[in-house]
Amino acid sequence: MKLRTLIWKELWQRPTTMLTSLLTVTLGVAALVAIQSITVSSEQKIAGDMESLGANVLVLPTSASLQDYYSADMHGQTMPEEYVTRLALARMPGVENLAPKLCVAETVDSTPVTLTGILPRSEFQAKSSWQGLNLMANPVGSGRGCCLTPTSVGNGDDENPADLATTRTIQTLGKREVILGSDIATKLGKKTGDQLNLLGEKFQVLAVLPETGTVDDSRLFAHLHSVQDLSGAGPVINVIEIMACCEEAAGDLIGDLSAVLPETRIVTIAQVVETQVAVNGLMSSLSWVFFSILLLVGGASIASVMFANVTERRKEIGTLMALGAGRRIVTQLFLGKATLLGVSGGFIGFLAGTIVAVVLGPQLLGIAVQPMPQLLAIGMITATVVSLLASYFPARKAAGLDPCLVFNDA
């Protein structure tokens, strides 16, 4: 009888104890795969959001709680629009774009929507107090560089309204015009040129934004002053998004902003990303901790099962050795079972962890998780090594049995 056949017979004849050990190893690998997959996908999402995000500095009310940088205007707190004027007149170097926003909840055709009031660049150019400040001269995402002089860029009059998806600002927006995110446009069945009722008035769809994968996809954008007037909110805003030169944002700009607007809270993308990266790092570390603990428990379980197996099967092992099986064969029999447990546990754990991550990632965290094949090799190799190490001493004990003594004890 071949060694492989002996191993399979042993596993099928005593499945309960082996399944317990297999389950522990599987859970360890599944925990590692699930958490690592979600962590890596979260890091990729952060990188994508940073690439598509136009603003790298936020001005918020002091009482605002920032849960998500990319929907920072959803906190429900307000501050005077006059703060925008104070920032514009401060003429701080490194400030390229100011984008005040106000969010209100609205219903369109019985569909709840988020209406975001934005201020186009034409409004900055029209205000006499702001003329000559050259704000909004360098559209975010235009590829024209950072902190260029006003004479080195165009005025952006030919900018497409759909560019709001990447620039976070647009050149002009009428008082009764609205821009739709891709998801809400599909849900409402609206396209460019259509009309819809908002805040008791008819608005014309100026443009439908391309899909961005951000909260903008589910929003409607209208002129800030129209949203303020029609909603009754008054001259207030939820947030001021600022596009600042990277060097300035990392330097004295935050202190200068705080000095001009001490009544507000200044948040930079660096602070938020550092926090998110730290959370991702903690998740990654925890996954290895869970993995190590569960594998240690699995290894102890396998060792216990193997030692018990040796004790219970002394006669069978003695008979096998009496029939000519050497110590090497007996050792290989036990280590073969351990290898099969490790490989099976690693493979099943990878599948289970991947399924959990793919299913729960979008539902709980809003993150699309992709399988990570490289974790399959890590899980299978580690689980196999742990199983072999746990089975080594029981295998040596079994191989060291003396057939004569075994039968004498009987």
TrEMBL record:
The chain crosses the membrane at residues 286-308, 329-360, 372-393. GO terms for molecular function: ATP binding; hydrolase activity; transmembrane transporter activity. It is an enzyme of class 3 (hydrolase). Belongs to the ABC-4 integral membrane protein family. Its EC number is 3.6.3.-. It comes from Thalassoglobus polymorphus. Its main location: membrane. It is a multi-pass membrane protein. It is found in: Cell membrane. This is Macrolide export ATP-binding/permease protein MacB. Residues 289-403 form the ABC3 transporter permease C-terminal domain. Coiled coil: none annotated. Residues 20-236 form the MacB-like periplasmic core domain. InterPro entries: ABC3_permease_C, MacB_PCD, Macrolide_Exporter_MacB. Keywords: ATP-binding, Cell membrane, Hydrolase, Membrane, Nucleotide-binding, Transmembrane, Transmembrane helix. GO terms for cellular component: plasma membrane.
